[in-house]
Amino acid sequence: MKRRSADSGGSYFSAFRRYLSVLKNRFTDCAQSVRTKLFGASLRPHVLTRYLVRELLLYFSVAFLFFFTIFFVNQILLIADNILRQGAPVWDVVKLMTYSLPFIVAQSSPFATLVGFLMCLGRFMSDNEIIIFRASGFSYVHILTPVLVLGLAISIASFFVNDYLLPLGTIRYHRLRRTILSSNPAVALDSHSIKRLNTATLVTGDVSDTKVSDLVIIDTGSDGKMRIISAGESELKSVRKEGVLMQLTMTDALALFFNTGSFSDYDLLLSDRVAFNLFESAFFSDGGRTSPNEMTSYDLGRTLRDMRKDASADKYTINNYTLEYNKKFSQPFGSLFFAFLALPLAFLFGRQNGQTIGMIVGIVISFLYWTMMILGQYASSRNGFNGFWSMWIPNIVTGAAGAAFYIALKKR
Q1: 3 state SS of 128
Q2: How far is Cα 56 from Cα 169, in angstroms, rounded to an integer?
Q3: This prediction's pTM
Q4: What pLDDT is attached to residue 332?
């Protein structure tokens, strides 16, 4: 009886084990079926791409509005306020703001790409969505591809704005600005201020309508001598002369002419009334000609080739045109380099609070990138540094950093 009981217990135990084995197999089959339905259908490559692009565009749009607002307030509203205070028509101010929009769009797009992509990919990392992607068999290359494609699409759209809409807006902006200044010269001057123009420096006292008190003008005459002209009271007038933007009728004027090499050698001139012309070249560096930032890349490239063939062409001017030509490409395609940098940065440092970290890191990198661009343009315009390198070094540094971080991500 004991042996039969033992055998019976053993058979029950074996049957229970077989039941557990069957249950395990069924559960495994069910789990595999669920996994296939979830990952095999929902996370197919085109579904993953569509999901990534939708989220990246959402975060890019938010970041773009952020940078657009900053540049708009900093560069447009201040100008509009200055012009409105001097009595310029409101509609002209609105048109000036509209013509400046392409510049703001071109400036905002690369930085919005970096910050938006970092925030989006950082959220993926902190929410463990990247783990799901990786567990579903997708490599970093599968995730990087839509990121780069979208970065390239943003670059192409930004290039169109930078190459076509920006020159068109700049031309119309300068044309309207000239019209405003010539019809209402007081717009150009502020009370109790120092205004540095291209060819002169103006120090003003009170400015009321067209009357200016305690005016001092410092510039260089046609003979190469520096001159300082002061007047107790002056009146601004609009004139219709080629190249002349406005005229100052100065009373009780004093003019001092001297050589910069010898300040003890000077000439003094006193006059009850002096008419002083302010030319367009004083306010606009192009002097009425088409400037490089008013050309498309095609026109600018053709002009640059002709200048290089001309042996008498000024090297400084050639370098300035070279800078503007490369700027038309380097600035919009910065979005592509930023897209490449964003992915490894977000995956390496976005495990905790990836969205917040992405925003902070993106703003810091944007500031550093902007600083490199400004320093490059300054070095090129003041010290003759090569215009090509001054515009492409920020992108080269960004691309190299992106490659280094991506290699570190692959090795992790």
Answers
A1: coil
A2: 29
A3: 0.75
A4: 94
Q: Provide the CB-side half-sphere exposure for 271 (13 A, CA).
A: 16
Query: What is the reported pLDDT for 92?
Result: 80
106 contacts 332 by C-beta, under 8 angstroms: yes
Residue type, 95: K
* Helical (H) or strand (E) element with 279: strand 262-279
> What's the whole-number average pLDDT of the chain?
81
The answer, yes or no, to whether residue 6 has pLDDT greater than 50, is no
Q: Which residues have a Cβ under 8 Å from the Cβ of 36 and sit 6 or more positions away?
A: none
Contact 86, 236 (CB under 8 A): no
Around Cβ 139, how many Cβ atoms within 10 Å?
11
Burial class of 103 by CB neighbour count within 10 A (0 to 12, 13 to 18, 19+):
buried
Alpha-carbon span 325 to 370, nearest angstrom: 18
Question: How far is the C-alpha of 148 from the C-alpha of 164, rounded, in Å?
Answer: 24
Nearest to 215 by CA among 252, 178, 184: 252
Confidence (pLDDT) at 287: 53
Q: Average pLDDT of 350-375?
A: 89
Tokens at 5, concatenated = 């009981």
Nearest to 295, CA basis, from 336, 335, 332, 327? 327
List pLDDT tens digits, range 31-43: 444 444 444 444 5
pLDDT at 13 over 80: no
Which pairs from 38-43 meet CB under 8 Å and 24+ separation?
A: 39/135, 39/136, 39/137, 43/132, 43/133, 43/136, 43/138
Token pair, residue 297, equals 């890349």
DSSP tag of 39: I
Q: Whole-angstrom Cα distance, residue 116 to residue 121?
A: 9
Q: How far is CA 379 from CA 90, 273, 283, 349, 385, in A?
A: 38, 43, 23, 34, 5
- Per-residue pLDDT tens digits for 205-220: 887 777 888 888 888 7
Query: H or E stretch including 201?
Result: strand 200-204
Give backbone dihedrals phi and psi of 312, rounded to 5 degrees, phi first.
-90, 0
User: CA 103, CA 107: separation in Å to the nearest integer?
Assistant: 6
Mean pLDDT, residues 80-108 taken together: 79
Do the beta carbons of residue 214 and residue 202 sit within 8 Å? no
